[in-house]
Amino acid sequence: MFKRAPIAASIAAIIAVTAAAGSALAQAGDVNVYTYRETKLIQPLFDAFSKETGIKVNVISASSGLEQRIKTEGALSPADVLLTVDIGRLEDAIKAGISQPIVSPALDKVVAPQFRDPEGHWYAISMRARVIYASKDRVKQDAITYDELADPKWKGKICIRSGQHMYNNALIAAYIAKHGEAKAETWLRGVKANLAQKPAGGDRETARDVAAGKCDLGIGNTYYWALMMNNPEQKAWAEATKVVLPTFDGGGTHVNVSGVMLAKHAPNKINAMKLIEWLAGEQAQHIYADTNFEYPLRAGIAINPIIASYGALKPDSLPLAKIADNKKAAAALVDKVGFDN
Q1: 109: CATH
Q2: Which residues of 200-224 are buried (b: 16+ CB within 10 A; e: fewer)?
Q3: How far is CA 98 from CA 15, 171, 200, 308, 310, in A?
Q4: Are 228 and 64 in contact (CB under 8 A)?
Q5: Are 163 and 191 a contacting pair, CB within 8 Å?
Q6: Number of folded domains in the chain?
Q7: CA angle 161, 82, 280 (to 5 degrees)
Q8: 59 has which bridge partners?
Q9: Cα separation of 77 and 198, whole Å?
């Protein structure tokens, strides 16, 4: 009869095995990437990097918990790079103490200050905008502000996923950063009053519901619309809508990012830095534009034609770090107004 080992001992054993594997990888010079991104979306990047440099990239992908995993693995963690989406997750990683500053004049030339951590703990490598999927048949205007989403003329006409989802959390946090919590509460209550149904599903489902006539406006990210256009089963949802690039009053369009961090105890730091800088290079930026349908951070890289068809993007100038500072306030506000109820 087997005797069950104590939980603490089991965890320690797992970490030891992970550390041993990490040590072997360190000797080999491979770069170990922990990522929240779907492997199929980013594997083309790593394949291209390996082909150009001869450096192998090992990938661990998950939907949650990577910050805690790296923290638990501690100094023996095999993680070299954390690749993620959303400013909130980037800031969460900093707070977890699992990153180290990146020192790279090459990155500083490519990535504008508003799209990187002031102390160098993360750099954005691509952008996505939070936009409106508007019914082609029922919405005639081609310009809408974020403030206007609270206008009673849209009562019963807006579809959106949960207000607590990180993409909407970031948008609400940006509104708080620009206008303060009191005005943000008034605005969010107005948006809630205009909802056609309980927030649910994802961004693609909002386009589906607009196409079905359940609502006239859906809130979603830019790349989902392009992905739907390339999906035979979802193409009709995109074709029934048009993408409108909304703006803040006196500002630009809210953007979020895909970002990269150097792990605090990266065992393969030299090669990890090669990968991080390569991700901001021309080849990688073209892949982000044409495979992931994101906006490249590097100037001079052509935007994918589908994304370019939305019109010229004018990113809001609010530093993403300030959005992250208001993340908790945004989550609390969603609960306060009962947005998801």
Answers
A1: 3.40.190.10
A2: ebebbbbbbbbbeeebbbbbbbbbb
A3: 16, 26, 33, 36, 38
A4: no
A5: no
A6: 2
A7: 95
A8: 33
A9: 42
Quick one: how many helices (H) and strands (E) in the chain? 15, 10
Neighbour tally for 193: CB within 10 Å: 14
Residue 2 falls within a domain, yes or no? no
Asked whether residue 44 falls in the same domain as residue 172, the answer is no
Longest dimension (CA), the chain: 73
CB distance 255 to 128 below 8 Å: yes
Look at residue 100 and give its three-state secondary structure.
Answer: strand
Beta bridge partners of 257: 127
Q: For 228, what's the count of Cα atoms within 13 Å in the CB-facing half-sphere?
A: 25
Q: Are residues 28 and 96 in the same domain?
A: yes
Strands 158-159 vs 217-221: parallel, antiparallel or unpaired: parallel
Q: What span, in angstroms and rounded, lies between the C-alpha atoms of 115 and 256?
A: 9
Query: 274: which 2 tokens?
Result: 């090669």
Separation of alpha carbons 193 and 210, rounded Å:
18
Please state, in angstroms and rounded to a whole number, the distance separating the CA atoms of residues 200 and 40: 25
Q: What is the DSSP letter of 62?
A: -
- Residue identified by tokens 């900093």 is 94
User: Quick check: helix, strand or coil at residue 74?
Assistant: helix
What is the Cα–Cα distance from 299 to 290, expressed in whole angstroms?
Answer: 15
DSSP helix/strand/coil, 181? helix
Across the chain, mean pLDDT equals: 91
Q: Which two tokens stand for residue 298?
A: 């590097």
* Residue 161 structure tokens: 């996923």
54-64 tens-digit pLDDT? 999 999 999 88
* pLDDT value of residue 28: 62
Instruction: Read off the pLDDT of residues 131-179 as tens digits, 9 standing for 90 and up.
Output: 999 999 999 999 999 999 999 999 999 999 999 999 999 999 999 999 9
Q: Are 111 and 280 in contact (CB under 8 A)?
A: yes
* Same domain, residue pair 168 and 143: yes
The Cα 309–Cα 40 span in angstroms is 25
First to last CA, the chain: 51
